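Much of the work behind modern protein science is quiet bookkeeping, done one molecule at a time. The fold becomes a row of whole numbers, each drawn from a learned catalogue of backbone shapes. The protein below has been through that process, and both of its lines are reproduced in full.
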Amino acid sequence: MRFARKKALYPFVQEERMNKMRRRFYILDVFAEQKYAGNQLAVVRDAAGLTSEDMLALTREMNYSETTFIMAEGPRAGGYDVRIFTPGEEIPFAGHPTLGTAWLIQQEIIGEPVPQVVLNYQVGQIPVQFSYGDGQPDELWMRQQQPVFGSTFAPEAVASVLGLRPEQIDPRFPCQEVSTGLPFVIVPLRDLAAVQQCRANTRALLELLADAHAKNMLVFAPETYHVTNDLNVRVFTDYLGIPEDPATGSANGCLAGYLAKHRYFGGPEVDVRVEQGYEIKRESLLLLRARDTGAAIDIQVGGRVLLVAKGELV
């Protein structure tokens, strides 16, 4: 009798297990002007029921800088619940996962043009605006939270962890910690050659940043590979499990706030094209807008999203 009961229940148990395994996933290229460029992102739908350990394991399996998990197919409080993981840990906010996940929600869940999609994160709600061409999303723009400016660091110390000479750092502007939800140290360099030369020493970097909130670093210069772009950027994120990120919306949002606050271009407004990822063969383009009103700094980061693949977890 006991055996018969188990046998009768088995199909239902098996079906439940199969339903749990039928989770759709998508591979996107974010901040990309063409496929197989930009920053890769994995997005998992039907994520309800996954534990944090499950999500971290899946993120390590995908082995991209971030993987996002859409926790429900419908909105809550006007936004969609999303969690973000790096191969190292869960993080409260990130830029290219925000654009990519919003694009996927608009395309695969909402299924029709909408002016914006709001994502619910640990840091709060992040809205993403859409512009359309031929009925398809063209550019996406996310409005980031107000920047918080933290510690500054001696150019000599920063140069040492990057394998540079102190004079390769632009002395007109500080090496400073900035956060719009995820903190980065922003480092102004004189030229593209200095950016190319950077070799981040992870141990030395983490020792330098031991008392800071930021554990990752963005370097930039006003010299670029392409004349249509304004800045060249590299972002070192070994602390998060990826030595160098090919396109970093959160870090570039911090950069946009930094550029406006310190009047890098001579005034309180910023409207620039940023190239990133060239040194690791993932050419990316990010669009930055910022305006310092004195009372606040409005920051927007934009770019394009392209679908590369989709399937099911088994």
User: Anything to note?
Assistant: The domain at 148-302 is CATH 3.10.310.10 (Diaminopimelate Epimerase; Chain A, domain 1). The helical segments are 2-21, 52-62, 95-110, 155-162, 192-197, 202-208, 249-261. The chain has two domains: 12-144+305-313, 148-302.
